[in-house]
């Protein structure tokens, strides 16, 4: 693995650890979703760096996944990916951090669903890139 890839992976793993540490806390579901989104973004960027694919400075998960898919289709749930992507956009304002696109605080079930999706992204990444 390239050193530049390792840097992205380091931060992706930190986001996963933060999300995992709060996964059972009803008051922290927004933070779980936020850090899960961040990990997904960083795993996509890690994969692109490892495969010498230049990407713009964006945070748009579907657009990043489109670049990832130009190398290999990971066969992920793109509807859920789009939902997670909208969480990031909304979270740029302090009053919305970690809220779902409909403005609701996520349930424990929803935060676990998104965290599990992020874990799946991590697993796919690690199966494709020697860590």
Describe the structure.
Helices cover 64% and strands 0% of the residues. The protein is an all-alpha fold and 131 residues long. It has one domain: Nucleotidyltransferases  domain 2 (Four Helix Bundle (Hemerythrin (Met), subunit A)), CATH 1.20.120. The longest helix is centred in the N-terminal third of the chain and has 22 residues, at 29-50. The mean pLDDT is 90.
Assign the CATH class: Mainly Alpha
CATH topology: Four Helix Bundle (Hemerythrin (Met), subunit A)
Query: How many structural domains?
Result: 1
User: Secondary-structure element order, as H and E?
Assistant: HHHHH
Helix content class: 55-70%
Beta percentage is under 5%
Described by the principal axes of the CA atoms, the overall outline is globular
Between the first and last Cα atoms, what is the distance in angstroms? 6 Å
> Main sheet, how many strands, which sense, barrel?
none
Q: Write down how many β-strands occur, each being a DSSP E stretch of 2 or more residues.
A: 0
Number of helices: 5
SS content category: mainly alpha
Q: Specify the CATH architecture.
A: Up-down Bundle
